[in-house]
Amino acid sequence: MSARLRCGERMLALDSPVAMGVLNLTPDSFSDGGRYLDPDRALERALEIVAEGGAIIDLGGESTRPGAAAVSAAEELRRVLPLLERLRPRTNAVLSVDTSKPEVIRAASAAGADLINDVYALRAPGALEAAAESGCAVCLMHMQGEPRTMQRAPHYEDVVSEVRAFLSERVTACRAAGIADERIVLDPGFGFGKTLEHNLTLLRQLRKLCVAGLPLLAGLSRKSMIGALTGKPAGERLHGSVAAALIAAQNGADILRVHDVAATVDALRVLHAVGRPDRGGGPA
Ligand code: 8Y4
């Protein structure tokens, strides 16, 4: 595990797992759609994420849930930039933007974003170059297919090897574009073209995805996998989500992308005190 991540000018310590708080700026998110469309409410929630112990705020202006419609760069910028500009002078937390589009990567980094969280792993034309020039850290996520159709019939011969090979190829592409390893985070993309069994296998074997010792991010919060295991709708998945985040952290995740920051941070504090299995007995 890498001890830290270079996010533009900022350095994010990853000596123990940290929480990334989700802030959806879309009208149609599955679990909190439209709740933060009002700019004042969004700013308030962002600062609350930090107060709850979140190390990263993940601002989402594009819809990536299964079946979601595409959003233009102009619309993404309209959703994300005003908040980024108000938030930047008010916090030192790492500010992450969910996007795949080079125009959004450029404008977001100019407005003070530190991390580009791309569910397409910088595969869009121009995205690698924009990310390289931005100086931001990048999260490279695995997805089979595309959001509209990815949950129709996910199929793998060996899900762990295939996800690992994909991430490894994207790391090679990043290095070739001039993005140093210290700026890269990897993510198996739970729920993105995966059945419940695929997700469980990835969660069990998370550590095998640790290509080149790069840090890992896991996003399990409130996802349908938690719904399938608990029988609960999206609004009642707190306990299942905290359990899943803790298991991911024990299995090597460095960053947990979550909706419920306060609860997850408490769980991670307990884990930190006990230590992770692969790191001897001391605090991890
Ligand atoms: C309920 C709540 C049901 C949430 C579905 C969802 C990830 C991500 C998303 C992830 C990274 C989501 C933007 C999907 N998931 N980025 N983004 N990793 N890096 N669905 O796992 O939260 S959005």
How would you describe this protein?
- This protein has 284 residues and is an alpha/beta fold.
- It has helices at residues 39-51, 73-87, 102-110, 127-134, 159-177, 196-204, 224-230, 238-250, 261-274; strands at 4-7, 10-13, 18-24, 56-60, 94-98, 115-118, 137-141, 184-187, 217-219, 255-258.
- The chain has nine helices and ten strands.
- It has an eight-stranded parallel beta sheet with strand order 8-7-6-5-4-3-10-9. Strands 1-2 form a two-stranded antiparallel sheet.
- Helix 1 crosses helix 2, helix 2 (73-87) runs parallel beside helix 3 and helix 3 packs parallel to helix 4 (127-134).
- The longest helix has 19 residues, at 159-177.
- Bound molecules: ligand 8Y4.
Element-level helix/strand string: EEEHEHEHEHEHEHEHHEH
Name of the CATH architecture = Alpha-Beta Barrel
Give the count of helical stretches: 9
Write the CATH homologous superfamily. Answer: Dihydropteroate synthase-like
Ligands (ions, cofactors included): ligand 8Y4
Give a quick precis of the structure.
By secondary structure, this protein is α/β, with parallel strands linked by helices.
Question: Topology, please?
Answer:
Layout: E1 4-7, E2 10-13, E3 18-24, H1 39-51, E4 56-60, H2 73-87, E5 94-98, H3 102-110, E6 115-118, H4 127-134, E7 137-141, H5 159-177, E8 184-187, H6 196-204, E9 217-219, H7 224-230, H8 238-250, E10 255-258, H9 261-274
Parallel strand pairs: 3-4, 3-10, 4-5, 5-6, 6-7, 7-8, 9-10
Antiparallel strand pairs: 1-2
The chain binds ligand 8Y4.
